[in-house]
Write a structure and sequence with these properties.
This protein is mainly α. The chain is built from 10 helices and no strands.
Length: 198
C-alpha cells in the first residue's frame, strides 16, 4: 500500500533508488533484501519484455509461467503461484504457504519434510483436474483459515476438527493419549510392595 501511495507508476518504482524503496517497505520482513530484489525484478521485466507488463504470461501454460517467474531473484513457488492465481492472470495454480504445508503434512498428503515446491507438485496432482483459478483460490483460503484457527502449529484443536477422522496426526495423537491412559492406569493398579520384616 505504501509503495502504491508513494510511487505514481511501476516505472517510477523501477527507477527509484534502492534506499527510497527500502524506506517504503521498512516494516516488511527482510526489507533490506527485498528492496533491491524488487527493483531488479522490474528491471528484468522491462529488459526482457520491453515494458512493465506480465500480460504475456497469460498465453503461457501455468508450469512455463511459473518457471519464468522463478528466474527472478527471490521469487519462489509461493510468490510465483500467487502472481498467477491472485492477479488478473487468474491461472489455476495453488498457492501453498506454511499453513498449507502443516495441514497437508498432518493429513498425510505430503511428507513432513516436504518444502513448498514439493508440496505444490504433489498437491497439484491430487486436486481435481477441472478446478479453475477460483477453486484453487478458495482452497488456499480455506486451508489457510483451517491452519490459523484449528490446525495450529503448537496446540492443534483436533477435538473439534471436521477432518480428524481422516487425519494421520489426529489418529496418532489419539493413539498416544490412549496408550498414555493405559500406562497410567496400570501404574495406579500395581500392588504396593510390602516391606520385608526385619
Amino acid at each position: 500500500m505504501r509503495l502504491r501511495d508513494h510511487f505514481c507508476c511501476w516505472e517510477d518504482l523501477r527507477d527509484a533508488p534502492v534506499a527510497e524503496i527500502h524506506e517504503m517497505i521498512r516494516a516488511v520482513e527482510i526489507s533490506e533484501r527485498k528492496a533491491p530484489r524488487l527493483k531488479a525484478a522490474l528491471q528484468f521485466v522491462t529488459a526482457s519484455q520491453g515494458g512493465l507488463s506480465l500480460d504475456f504470461l497469460a498465453e503461457m501454460p501455468a508450469d512455463a509461467a511459473i518457471i519464468w517467474l522463478e528466474k527472478l531473484e527471490g521469487v519462489g513457488r509461493k510468490t510465483s503461484a500467487a502472481v498467477l492465481n491472485f492477479s488478473t492472470l487468474r491461472k489455476a495454480v495453488l498457492v501453498v504457504d506454511t499453513h498449507h504445508l502443516r495441514v497437508a503434512a498432518r493429513l498425510g498428503l505430503i511428507s513432513r519434510k516436504a518444502n513448498i515446491e514439493k508440496a505444490y507438485d504433489t498437491l497439484m496432482r491430487l486436486l481435481p483436474g477441472h478446478w479453475g483459478a477460483n477453486e484453487m483460490d478458495d482452497h488456499h483460503q480455506l486451508i489457510k483459515l483451517h491452519g490459523q484457527t484449528l490446525c495450529r502449529p503448537m496446540v492443534p484443536k483436533c477435538g473439534c476438527c471436521p477432518v480428524r477422522e481422516v487425519c494421520s496426526y489426529s489418529r496418532n495423537a489419539r493413539r498416544s493419549r490412549s496408550v498414555s491412559r493405559v500406562t497410567r492406569s496400570n501404574r495406579s493398579a500395581a500392588p504396593l510392595r510390602r516391606s520385608r520384616p526385619t
